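Re: that chain you flagged

S.,

Sorry for the slow reply, it's been a week of failed gels. I finally had a moment to sit down with the sequence you sent. For the record, here it is as I used it:
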Amino acid sequence: MDKILNKISNLVLLLTIAASYLMWVAGIGTKATGFIYQNSVYLLAAAIAVVLVLRIKELKKADWLLIGLAVGIMLFYTATSSMRHSNRFINASIPLIILFLICFKNTRFTKIDFGLLTGITGAALGVTLYRIYTELPKLVPKAEIWKSSNKLEAIWINTNTIGMTLLLSVIMLSILIKSFSIGYAKLLVLPIYAVGLAGIWVCQSKASLGALLLFIFVDNLIPKKLLQNNYLLTLGFGAIFAAGPFIFHAFSKSATLNLFTGRERIWAEFFDKWFADTQNMLIGMAPFTASWKNLGTHNSYLYALGSYGIIGYILLFSVLLGLLSIGIIQKRRLSFFQISLFFGFLAICIQSTMEETLLANYWIPIVYSFIGLAIQKTEQGQNSGSN
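Prediction finished late last night. Pasting the structure tokens below so you have them in one place:
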């Protein structure tokens, strides 16, 4: 019976990932994808509830404590919504992230499930590249497509969104292929890297391009044996989460530091508003929009500070850091597969310095599947891998 419940749970989780990809691959202009986009919070909450009910016997004391924390966070930020001029979708993000990770933590993906995930991710990558190949030439002269002066804001959807789709699908697909023991199949990651980089380049999504280059470097050149105890990885993520806001503040106030993206101007105005009131700093403020254009923070860490204050920021990233350090807590060495997944999440964290990816409800299933797969109970042998 447990195998059946586990299988159903896995299929539900895979469905959330497929639905998330579908929005960006097909665009949100269709009736189906528009419905998913507008109701992403409710649909994800329903999927999480189904999995938690199915896996209720697997939940440990620590899981129940995290569930209680998620409920408490939701109640607190709902009660303070009027003070922060917030809404249910913003209030739900942190609880949904925590609960989604609990779902993954208490399931066991089998080889079939990993095969399905490979199919979903490969299809998302293939269709996205096909659409770029067929639709971009209609908007940009062929001679201009590869030039950095190509400044299209959208093809069938925002180009940064397309770049993010390519980033996530390339990273996950390459990790999965390298985890399978199928002879020379691992060489497939090379063309996958190539087409992913090419697709992101023509979309001019600089944050995703930099993140993918970082992932390719660390996943292939850094010896994973040095990271199997997880201490260095945990310290690295801790440093990013703790130092991030200070670094962004330094960029926003510096006359010499320049990211060549205009983000510094946005961040400077954000900090001026955030520092203006103690309440803003502690529990959050009204959703930030730049005064000169309809632009948000374009930064997940500052979005967290603005939406939930220091209290919410600490709660969110403390939970993530705790789950990322699960190998230390359980006194077991990480597999190379798990390390690659953490590298993948590291790339997302870097990309999130330029976008609000980490807290966007419709990205949660894909983004947090990297941590989820790394901490879940997997089939023996699936996660062995090699560097």
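What I noticed first: The chain has 18 helices and no strands.

Talk soon,
D.
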